[in-house]
Model the fold of this input.
Amino acid sequence: MASHAGAGSSRARGAQLLEVLSKLDISGRTPAATTRPATDVEADEKDAQKLKDLYEMWDADEMPTREYRQKRREIEARMKERQK
Done:
């Protein structure tokens, strides 16, 4: 006769696994430290988009390299300051 004693613990492990998997973040966003204010995280996301847009403008020859580098430094400095 087969024993089903392990079936309950197997179901419990399955339930725990489902609970963990349901909490996974699959948004693709870089996780922020739990001590950072949400406003800083949002500002970093906006600045990251600005960096992408800035690069696209430079790549399309819509701005000179000197201006691109200066604006990139300003944005990166803001991001670095918020992440302290």
